[in-house]
Amino acid sequence: MFTSIKDFAAEWTNEAEMTQKIMNALTDESLGQAITDKHRTLGGLAWHLVESVHYMTSLGLAFDAPDNSDAVKKSAAALAGQYERVSRAILQAVETQWTDVKLLETQTIAGQEWNNGGSLRFTLMHQAHHRGQMTVLMRQAGLKLPDLYGPTYDSWVEQGMEPLA
Ligand code: NI
């Protein structure tokens, strides 16, 4: 859990930058990529990352919802733009509407007690979870992966190094 708004801001900024790199690498053609037709598509996961940031408004934070039109969901550029907006909006909302003391307050979510700092941590980890799923689908769709927590196959090749198999 986070006990400091400053710590959340620093970590969220880094994580949102990584998610933005993923969003920026998507193409319209790649959005339909899925492991099977029973699983979420790459575009569906991208939209889920956009919309789920806004779930935090159910805990009392106020910021604008993303545009949930079909036009957005079918456009890689629009999804990337919506992510950029909502990821900045949540940070601004936390910094201006909550305090460190507020992070210790608990709220009931689906019958469980969560402190607000824990909910922020969950939101951050939830992004990483789906980002990992997206990188698999991006590879399958033939997209070039950006570096996240370390170099990717593509960046090793670009640097003239032998990629780890
Ligand atoms: Ni999810």
TrEMBL record:
It comes from the Bacteria. The keyword Metal-binding applies. InterPro entries: DinB, DinB/YfiT-like. Keywords: Metal-binding. Pfam families: DinB. Belongs to the DinB family. This is Damage-inducible protein DinB.
